[in-house]
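Sample entry (398 residues):
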Amino acid sequence: MTGHVVIAPDKFRGSLTSPEVAAHVAAGLRYPGLGNVPVVELPVADGGDGTVDAVVASGFTRVETEVTGPAGDPVTASYAVRNEPGARVAVIELAEASGLRRLPGPPGGRPEEHVPVPLTATSRGTGELIAHAVRHGATRIVLGLGGSACTDGGAGMAQALGVRLLDAAGNDLPPGGAALRDLHAVDASGRLSGFEVIVASDVDNPLLGPYGAAAVYGPQKGASPQDVAVLEAGLARLAAVAAHTHGLAGAAEHDGVVRAMGVAGRPGAGAAGGVGFGALTFLDAEIRPGIGYLLDLVEFDRHVEGAQLVITGEGAIDEQTLRGKAPVGVAAAAAKHGVPVVAVCGRRTVGDEELRAAGIEAAYALTDIEPDVRRCMAEAGPLLERLAARIAAGHLTT
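Predicted structure, serialized as C-alpha cells:
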C-alpha cells in the first residue's frame, strides 16, 4: 500500500482508548468530499494504561483471568499473546491488575474517585498475570509499567511467582510497601522460571531517594508525607536484604550484593512503585524504551513504508510529551522513513516550534474547536472526526 495514512495514536485518558481514537480519526478522514485515501489504523502505547488494547488491535489475542487487585480483592484482568518466531510473547500491562483504576471505588469511576491504600497496595496481581501466561506457554513476557497503585518494589509480583519474602521469624510478609520494613530474608529458590522478561518503560527514576519511587510517585497514590517515609524505608530494606541474600537469580552472595545494589540506582528501577526494581532483581528483566519496543511489536516500520502521512496523538500534548512519550516516539520512527507527522490531542500546552523540534509538523486539539473541556471529554469522538477532516483538507493529496 502506498500513499496511505497511518493512524498511530495513544489513548485519550478518561475519554477514548487508543483503538477508539484511531477509529474516529479514520472516520473523519472519510468525510464526503475528502476522497478515499486508504488508512492503516495502528493504535500505540508506551507501556502504560492501554498497552494491551493497543497490541490486541494489532493482532494479538486477548486473554482474561481473575487475579488479585491492588487492595487484595479479586479483579478480572487481561493480557495479550501472540506467537512469534522462536517465542510465544505475552504483553502484560501492570495497570490491568495493579493499577489505580483497580482500587475500590464506583464502577467506571475516575481514578480520583477510587480509595487509595498506599501502605498495603500490592503488585501481586501482576505476578499472577505473568504466571498465568507462562503456564499457558509464554516464553517472553513484555511487561508494561505505568499507572500503578502500589509502592511495594515489586514484592507482591515476586511472591506470586514463588519468591518468598520472610520476616525474622520465617513468616511470609503481608502485602504492601510498609511491610517491607520487616523483611529479613529472600528465598528465590522456588521462583517460576523458563521465561524472559522485557520491561517496556520510559520512566528513568531510581528506586530510592528524592527522585525515587516513594518520593515522586507515592503522593499520586494517596501517600501522605508520613506514608512516603514509611514506604521509602520499606523499599530501602528490600534493596538491602535482596543485595545480601544468597541465591538471587543463581548469583553467589558477593555477586548478588553488587548486582542488587546497582539495580536500585538504575534508571527505571523506581518505575511503577519500584516494580521496575523487582523485575530487574527477581526476574532478570531487561528494560527497553517503552514506545520504541511497542512500535516494534506492532510492526510500525512495515506499516509506515510508502505512507504519505502519519497521524499520532494523545490526550494532552505538553512538556511530558516532549520527554519521549508515544507521539514523539512515533514521530522519530516515522522520520526514519521520511514520512511527515501531525498530531491530535485534547489540549496542548507547547508551541509550534517545540513540536517541530520533536518531529511533529502540527498539532490539532479538541479545544481548538470546543473550548469547553467537559464537552471535549464527553464528545471526544465526534470532535476528533471534525479535526481529522481538517487534517485531510490541509495535509493530504487524494
